[in-house]
Amino acid sequence: GDLDVNVPVQSKDEYGKVIQTFNDMTLRLREAEDARRRLVADVAHELRTPLSIMQLKLENAQQSGQSGSPEMLLRLHDEVIRLNLLVEDLHVLSLAEAGRLSLDRKTLDLTKKLEQIVDDVKMEAEENGLDIRFTSNARSVIVKADAGRLTQVFINLITNAIRYTPKGGNISVVIEDKVMDRDANYACVSIIDNGIGIPAEELPHLFDRFYRVEKARSRHTGGTGLGLSIAHQFVKAHGGFIRIASQHEQGSVFTVYLPIEGEQTGSTS
Ligand code: ADP
């Protein structure tokens, strides 16, 4: 393509360095261009199915000369909601990937926040035949964070635990105060399930957009395939990171590391 330029470097002087820099920049531009192309292809692919379903339903209603049954309208509405969520997720994800995600960081008691989140999802877990518990070894764990963004992170991870754990399973959310890692102190939140687990060879791809371990099955569970990418990017924007430990058919542990008050390393914008 247009970016297939690579100037051979012969000299080791200033001139050689300029050429080397030029070659590095070309490579990086090419990678960015590839990523952009892949994103457009992925988005087109993801939008195609729901849009075709909606088109077909509307055409069927038109042909039968009816304005559409209430059930059909309900299903169409569900598809529209799903599409809207997908577009919204893509929007925040692209902002985060460009380092332009706005964070409204305030002092936040993570223990209290998680207690509330677990309370909110308890019903959904129980409806799926799952037991969910919250444990903390500290009364309060204070971080400087965007409560809304972090709520989305934990909701995404807990929703996954619910989705990928068969009936009768257990989910626990555990918070730990002050875990030392990479020379800094972090508050750690683990979401532990004893569900279907993830094969080891899939682990490196989990934060990729639209990545699903078993495409067909995940499709039925209603996710957008962006949940983990968003969680990864939002936590990164806070100066933290996520670790995954999983055993196929045994269960998974997703641990969120967040820099604790006064020691955060990430951007504050
Ligand atoms: P999705 O909308 O498909 O759930 P995510 O980005 O949230 O997308 O997750 C990506 C994939 O990672 C899922 O499709 C699933 O295969 C796998 N996964 C995520 N969380 C879990 C979990 N707790 N247990 C087993 N597999 C999981």
UniProtKB/TrEMBL annotation:
Its EC number is 2.7.13.3. It is found in: Cell membrane. Keywords: ATP-binding, Cell membrane, Kinase, Membrane, Nucleotide-binding, Phosphoprotein, Transferase, Transmembrane, Transmembrane helix, Two-component regulatory system. It catalyses: ATP + protein L-histidine = ADP + protein N-phospho-L-histidine. GO terms for molecular function: transferase activity. Residues 1-34 form the HAMP domain. Signal peptide: none annotated. It comes from the Bacteria. Residues 42-262 form the Histidine kinase domain. This is histidine kinase. The gene is sasA_29. The chain holds residues 111 to 379 of 379 of the full protein.
